[in-house]
C-alpha cells in the first residue's frame, strides 16, 4: 500500500477514536507510525490532539504539541485550539498560556477556550478571556458570549451573567433562548428568583421560552420557597404549547415543600400521572419532606409505601424524612423500625437519619436506645453535635446524669463544641438528681465558652443550688442579674427559694425589683 494512502487510513482511524474520546488508541496509532516507516503530518497529529481534547487529557495534548514543534511540524490553528480547549476544561491558566503562544489564533481558537471554561464553570477565566479579546482588538461573537454566560451557571455568578447579557444586547448580536436560559440558570443558582422571573417574562414576550426556561424559573422559586409563584409558573407552562416535564413538576413540589404546603405537594405528586409523567425519586422525596415538616406522619408513611410499590427504590433521603416525621410525632418505635429497614435494604443511614432516630428516642426518654444509635454513629466515624445533644437530653429524661456528663466529655474528646442544648440537658440531669457540685462545674465550663446561657440554663442551675449554701447561689444570682436573659415563673420561683434560705425578707426586695424589670411583674 502506498505510504500516503496508509497515512490517510491512520488519520481516519485517529479521527474515529477522537469522536469516541478514545484518546489512548489514538496516541497508540500515532506512536506506531515510525515502525511502519510512516511520518506523521499535521493532519494526523491534529486528529490525535482532538481525541485528547474530547477526553480532557490536556497534559498529553500539550506534550504532543511540543513534540510537533520539536519535529518541526508546522502546527496550525486547529492544533492550538485542540490543546487550548483540553486545557480549558481542566487547567485554565495553561489554556491562557497556550492561547498566547498560538501564532495564528482566531475567534475559533478563543471560542474553543471559552467553551472549555463554560464546561468547567470557570466564570472568572471566561471574563478574563473577553478582556483578552478586546486587548487584541478582536470582537467576541455570540458563541463567545454564550460560553461566558454558561460559565457563570454552576457558581451562581448571576451578576456577571447579566452583565454579559447586557453587553450582548448593546452590541445587537443575534441571540436566542440559549443566552437567556444560561443567565436564568445562573440566577437560579444565585437564589435570585426576581431576576429569573424577569428573564422568563422577556423570553415569553419574544416567544422563545422553552421547557428549560420554565424549569429553571420554577427551580429558582423552589430554592426560595416561593410556592405560590412556582405553581403560577406551572399553570403558565400548561397553558402554553410546551410539553411539561417531570423536572419542572419536581421543582414545583420542592417549592411547596419549602413553603410548608404539604397538601399541594402531595396533590402535585398525584397529578403527575394525569400529565402522563412518571414520578421520580426526587418527586417522592420532596413530597415526603413536605409532610415531615408539617408533622404529617401517616401521609409520609403512605407515600413511602407508594414509593416502595413503584419501581423506584427509597434512598437515605426518603428514610431520613420519614424517620424525622416519626420523631416529630413521638413515635420512637416506628422510627427504629424504619432505621432497621434501612439496614435490611442496604441503605446506609446518614447523620440526618441517625440524629432523627436519636431525637425520637430522646422525646420518649429512651436513653438506652439513643445511646445505642449514637455508638453506631460513632462507629461509622460520623460525628454530629445534634446527635450528641439529643442523646444527652435522653439521658437527662432518664435521670442518667453520669451518662450525660460522660457524653459531654466525649464531645470534647471528639473535638465537638457542645451547644446550649447539650449544656442545658446535662445541667437539668444533674439538677434532677441533686448534683449541685456538678452543676457549678458545668456553669463554669459554659462561662468559659462564648455560648450565652438561656432561661432554661439559669432556672435549672438556680433550682439545683437551693439547699447548697447561700454563697454559691448568690454568685449565680448576680450573674443572672447581669445577663440579658428573660426569666420565667420557674426562674423567679427558684430564685425566691434560694433567697428565702437566709430567712431575711429584705434580701428578697432587690431580687423582686429585678424580676419586675425583667418583665415578671405579674409573677412577683
TrEMBL record:
Task: Give one Pfam family.
Answer: PPR_2
| Stretches forming PPR repeats | 106-140, 210-244, 245-279, 280-314, 315-349, 384-418
Among InterPro entries, the record links this protein to: PPR/CCM1_RNA-binding, PPR_rpt, TPR-like_helical_dom_sf
- Source organism, top-level taxon: Eukaryota
Question: Which Gene3D superfamilies does this one have?
Answer: Tetratricopeptide repeat domain (1.25.40.10)
Keyword annotations for this protein, in alphabetical order, are:
Repeat
The cross-references to PROSITE patterns, in alphabetical order and at most eight, read: PPR
Q: Which NCBIfam families match?
A: PPR (TIGR00756)
Q: What is this protein called?
A: Pentatricopeptide repeat-containing protein, chloroplastic
Q: What organism does the UniProt record list as the source?
A: Effrenium voratum
Amino acid at each position: 500500500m502506498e505510504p500516503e494512502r496508509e497515512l490517510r487510513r491512520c488519520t481516519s482511524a485517529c479521527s474515529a477514536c477522537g469522536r469516541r474520546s478514545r484518546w489512548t488508541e489514538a496516541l497508540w496509532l500515532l506512536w506506531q507510525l515510525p515502525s511502519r516507516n510512516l511520518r506523521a503530518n499535521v493532519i494526523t497529529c491534529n486528529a490525535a490532539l482532538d481525541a485528547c481534547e474530547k477526553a480532557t487529557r490536556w497534559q498529553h495534548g500539550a506534550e504532543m504539541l511540543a513534540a510537533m514543534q520539536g519535529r518541526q511540524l508546522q502546527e496550525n490553528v486547529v492544533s492550538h485550539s485542540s490543546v487550548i480547549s483540553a486545557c480549558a476544561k481542566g487547567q485554565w491558566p495553561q489554556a491562557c498560556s497556550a492561547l498566547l503562544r498560538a501564532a495564528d489564533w482566531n475567534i475559533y481558537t478563543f471560542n474553543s477556550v471559552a467553551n472549555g471554561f463554560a464546561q468547567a464553570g470557570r466564570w472568572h477565566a471566561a471574563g478574563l478571556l473577553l478582556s483578552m479579546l478586546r486587548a487584541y482588538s478582536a470582537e467576541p461573537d455570540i458563541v463567545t458570549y454564550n460560553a461566558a454566560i454558561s460559565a457563570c451557571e454552576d457558581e451562581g455568578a448571576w451578576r456577571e451573567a447579566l452583565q454579559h447579557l447586557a453587553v450582548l444586547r448593546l452590541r445587537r448580536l443575534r441571540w436566542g433562548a440559549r443566552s437567556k436560559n444560561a443567565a436564568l440558570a445562573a440566577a437560579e443558582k444565585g437564589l435570585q428568583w426576581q431576576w429569573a422571573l424577569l428573564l422568563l417574562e422577556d423570553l415569553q414576550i419574544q416567544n422563545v421560552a422553552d421547557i428549560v426556561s420554565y424549569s429553571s424559573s420554577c427551580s429558582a422559586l423552589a430554592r426560595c420557597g416561593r410556592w405560590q409563584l412556582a405553581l403560577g409558573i406551572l399553570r403558565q407552562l400548561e397553558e402554553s404549547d410546551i410539553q411539561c416535564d417531570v423536572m419542572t413538576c419536581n421543582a414545583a413540589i420542592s417549592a411547596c415543600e419549602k413553603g410548608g404546603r404539604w397538601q399541594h405537594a402531595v396533590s402535585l405528586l398525584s397529578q403527575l400521572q394525569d400529565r402522563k409523567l412518571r414520578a421520580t425519586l426526587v418527586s417522592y422525596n420532596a413530597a415526603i419532606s413536605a409532610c415531615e415538616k408539617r408533622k404529617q406522619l401517616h401521609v409520609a408513611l403512605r407515600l413511602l409505601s407508594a414509593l416502595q410499590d413503584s419501581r423506584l427504590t427509597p434512598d437515605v433521603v426518603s428514610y431520613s424524612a420519614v424517620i424525622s416525621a416519626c420523631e416529630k410525632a413521638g413515635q420512637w418505635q416506628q422510627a427504629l423500625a424504619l432505621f432497621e429497614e434501612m439496614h435490611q435494604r442496604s441503605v446506609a443511614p446518614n447523620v440526618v437519619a441517625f440524629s432523627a432516630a436519636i431525637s425520637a428516642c430522646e422525646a420518649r426518654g429512651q436513653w438506652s436506645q439513643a445511646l445505642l444509635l449514637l455508638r453506631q454513629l460513632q462507629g461509622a466515624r460520623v460525628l454530629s453535635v445534634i446527635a450528641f445533644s439529643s442523646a444527652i437530653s435522653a439521658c437527662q429524661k432518664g435521670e442518667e446524669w453520669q451518662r450525660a456528663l460522660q457524653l459531654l466529655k466525649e464531645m470534647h474528646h471528639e473535638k465537638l463544641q457542645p451547644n446550649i442544648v447539650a449544656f442545658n440537658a446535662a445541667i437539668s440531669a444533674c439538677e434532677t438528681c441533686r448534683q449541685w457540685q456538678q452543676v457549678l462545674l458545668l456553669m463554669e465550663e459554659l462561662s468559659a465558652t462564648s455560648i450565652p446561657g438561656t432561661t432554661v440554663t439559669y432556672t435549672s442551675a438556680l433550682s439545683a443550688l437551693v439547699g447548697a449554701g447561700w454563697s454559691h447561689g448568690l454568685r449565680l444570682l448576680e450573674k443572672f442579674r447581669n445577663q440579658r436573659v428573660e426569666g420565667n415563673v420557674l426562674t423567679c420561683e427558684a430564685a425566691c427559694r434560694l433567697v428565702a434560705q437566709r430567712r431575711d425578707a429584705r434580701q428578697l426586695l432587690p431580687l423582686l425589683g429585678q424580676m419586675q424589670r425583667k418583665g415578671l411583674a405579674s409573677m412577683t
